[in-house]
Amino acid sequence: MDEMFLLLFTFLTKTIFFTNTTIFEINYVYRGALTQIISNETRLMNEGDFCIISPFTQHSVLAAKDSLVLSIQLRKTTFDAIFGSFLAKTDLLAIFFKNTLYETNQSNYLYFHTDNNDNIKMLIQNIVREANTDDNYSSTCCNGYVQILFSTLLRKYGKSALYYGFNEQDSIDTDFTFILEYITQHYRTVTLDELSEFSHYSKPYLSSLFKKNMNQTFVNVLRNIKMRHALDFLANTEKTIEEIGIEVGYNSTDHFSRSFKQYNHCSPSEFRKKVREQQGRLSLR
Predict the structure, then answer these.
(1) Phi and psi (nearest 5°) for 162?
(2) What is the pLDDT of residues 83-107, one digit of tens each?
(3) Exposure b/e, 37-55, CB count within 10 A at least 16 = b
(4) Could you give the 3-state DSSP secondary structure of residue 237?
(5) Architecture of the structural domain at 173-283
(6) pTM > 0.85: yes or no
(7) What is the spatial distance between Cα 130 and Cα 139, in angstroms, rounded to a whole number?
(8) Is 165 helix (H, G, I), strand (E, B) or coil?
(9) What pairs with residue 31 in β-bridges?
(10) Sheet containing 68-75: which strands, arranged edge to edge?
């Protein structure tokens, strides 16, 4: 199993964990209880409860004694690959993805109470088993089980889920979802002219769709996507700054560095150093 593709951790004893990373975190209470503090809001999670936490959300985790909490951690690129199809929906998860993938950095989480559903627990067991299997099929199987898990959560518990940061105005027009999907898949090179040709919409109309659905311009949305990927590569790979710039669609390292600093208020190397220092402190806990 490629560790850069899916990371799996267990909290077996009483512990506390603070994070502010580029990783999507999915915490599931398999046994016992867990207290989470997210954006100064405290929530007790009991056996069978789920919490999906977006990147850059500062939070702490406190597991009760003898509890078993599974934390599935997905890199953003993995998250995009697995859940891009959900953007075609207009449900709660699609709104969550829109806010975490295309908006500026903000705290977001989804909370599901599953009543310790046996089917959910079986899916988790399958994910754990595949994550610990070393063959050519484990990553594909993990992707499939995680997609089924999210679909099941929405089908059974979507109406009762709690979404921190939800706004009724965050809903997405159906005719805009396929545009977001296209941008997600072609963010390195896509232009407004190309998007106009693909969608058969005029550029002024496309601009109005971005304003209506995202309250942003096409340029800002595209930059946010590129920066999200850049943050992920800096935090979780050993690629050079030049390689990352090319990977996310910039023609020069200088252009990439200027855009990155404007977006994150620090240089790519400063961000990587900060993340490495944070990871080092966490490994000593």
Answers:
(1) -105, 130
(2) 666 555 545 455 566 565 555 556 6
(3) ebeeeebebebbbbbbbbb
(4) coil
(5) Orthogonal Bundle (1.10)
(6) no
(7) 7
(8) coil
(9) 68
(10) 7-11, 68-75, 23-31, 50-53, 109-112, 162-164
